[in-house]
Amino acid sequence: MRPADVNPTANNHVNIHKKHHLYDINKPTNTITLSSNHPLVEKRSAGTPTRHSKNSDFTFDSLLLPPARTCSLYDSHITKLIHSSMAGYNSTVFAYGQTGSGKTHTLTGTEDEPGIIPLAVEQVFEEIYDDPTREFLLRVRYLEIYNEKLRDLLGPATQNEELRVREDKSGNTFVENLTEVLVTTPQEVLALKDQGDMNRHVGATDWNDRSSRSHCVFQIVVESSERQSNLTKHSVSRKSTLNLIDLAGSEKATTDTSRRLEGSNINKSLLALSTVISEIVKTPKPTHIPFRNSKLTYLLKPSLSGDARVGVVCTIADGMEHHNATLDTLKFARTIKKVKIQAKRGDILDGTKDALLQQHITQIKILQKEVASLESNKYEEIRHAIAEERAANDEKVFYQNNQIDQLKKELDDARKLVLNSTSIDGEDISHRRQSQLRHGQSRRLSDMGLGVSAPGFSVPQSKRRVLSTGIPVSTDENVGYLCETCQLLT
Predict the structure, then answer these.
(1) Are 227 and 420 in contact (CB under 8 A)?
(2) Burial letters for 428-457: b for 16+ Cβ neighbours within 10 Å, e otherwise?
(3) Across-strand partners of 452?
(4) Where is this region: Disordered (predicted)?
């Protein structure tokens, strides 16, 4: 749960909305409670019956309060989901909340504060680099659900075909004919994310100048198998899908006709999502759950049914005008917390049509054999024919060399798509880790009221003073800390 704004008070309690104090937050117990100032509580105390008269306490796994950053949320709750995805388990992370409450910021972030998606991409490649026993194949998909229609955000701009959600024999849903791009670097993944974002439907509303007008699903398909040196006779590959979902925000009525239609469809799909989750957590579970009532719930059927590890980030906004939407979000979060997960690892047998990585490895083996065969045979054939067809043989050598070069190129291209710990740029990852560490140190200094000056200054040994910042500094470095209100002591 991520409140948009809070007001700290004593005893580890926080009040959402400074002026009216609508909510009390108890951080140690991760609990939000409607305060006595909340309109619904006021109605209750006046004796007016209301359906909100019970269950005004909401307890969650974690509360992220300002000035905490997205990386704190990621480290405590999202990292383990990404790790599960790399191990072969379907994983889903989605952000839920009213428009303007910070969902897109939490998922996408900024250059200074990366969101969940760029942090997840970084972790995926770090785990490949850190695992020398397996080979990986990564694919990216990106789609949006706009006015109950599916749209391929990575497909051709001229594509008019309406995409459809299908279901296989195992009950897993997929989008037919959705563009899928093989990727080998974090930069390629994030470039595809940016490309898709440019094609998203966004628009100004009464509450947000650039509001997401669609539900967006960013997928990373992870397939892995043991490296060739470790393969057994009956090797099994793993396949999983990581879903990172930015849900459109619930909307109030608006005077704009197109926005009113968008808002109506958004609210319908969010209502369908709430209905499905309410049915799932019932005991005993109903025999029929209306997943097909919306494209969103049908697409999320495997995740909501329990065959995935799921993380939900709910964002809420303060203010008297938002109290109904905030209460709806709190109720949604409390309900979805009851969903029970029984995820199974996605093992696929080699030789099946789903084992794309093994098909790729098999193609590499075939190309290797063809190259070896041509290499061993070309000179033998030349020796037998050199006396009679010198000119013809020269032409044949030229042709065979071209074949070899072409096959080698195909082999190299195929190898580049199979990722492992040695093919990932460790120096690049190390550089980014060091950059993140320096950025974190700078931020901690900034939080203490200190600034970092570049290129810095040095102070003679006899005039140095010790400044305790709690930040380790190498003994080989001279570091100066400047304070705007201080002068250098001499």
Answers:
(1) yes
(2) ebeeeeeeeeeeeeeeebeeeebeeeeeee
(3) 481
(4) 34-53
Closest CA to 55 of 339, 338, 340, 334: 334
Q: How far is the C-alpha of 245 from the C-alpha of 267, rounded, in Å?
A: 16
Instruction: Answer yes or no: is pLDDT of 55 > 70.
Output: no
Question: Helix, strand, coil shares of the chain as percentages rounded to 5?
Answer: 40, 20, 40
Biggest alpha carbon distance in the chain? 111
Tokens matching residue 151: 């749209």
C-alpha 482/C-alpha 463 separation (Å) is 15
How high is the pLDDT of residue 313? Answer: 94
Burial degree of 27 (CB within 10 A; 0-12, 13-18, 19+):
middle
CA distance 147 to 162: 12
Q: Measured between alpha carbons, how far is 443 from 35 in angstroms, rounded to an integer?
A: 34
Nearest to 16 by CA among 1, 107, 72: 1
Dist. CA 12–CA 35, nearest whole Å: 16
The per-residue DSSP string of 159-226 comes to --PPB-EEE-TTS-EEETT---EEE-SHHHHHHHHHHHHHHS-EE--SS-TTEE-SEEEEEEEEEEEE
Tokens encoding 398 = 């030229």
As a whole number, mean pLDDT of residues 168-188 equals: 90
For residues 58 and 32, what is the distance between their CA atoms, to the nearest angstrom? 5
How many other C-beta atoms can be found within 10 angstroms of the C-beta atom of residue 117? Answer: 21
Question: What distance in Å separates the CA atoms of residue 205 and residue 99, rounded to the nearest whole number?
Answer: 9
Q: Is 281 left (phi over 0), alpha (psi -120 to 50) or beta?
A: alpha
Two structure tokens written together for 436: 């993140």
Q: Report pLDDT for 466.
A: 54
- By the 10 Å C-beta count (0-12 exposed, 13-18 middle, 19+ buried), 193 is classed as buried
Annotated binding site: 97-104
In three-state secondary structure terms, 144 is strand
Q: Pick out the residues of the known binding site for ATP.
A: 97-104
Q: Say if CB 193 and CB 106 are below 8 A apart.
A: no
Which ranges of 25-115 would DSSP assign to H, the alpha helix? 39-45, 70-73, 79-86, 103-108
48 has a pLDDT exceeding 50: yes
Residues 144 and 201: beta-carbon distance below 8 Å: yes
Rg (CA), the chain: 29
Residue with tokens 């037919």: 176
* Better-scored residue on pLDDT, 389 or 73: 73
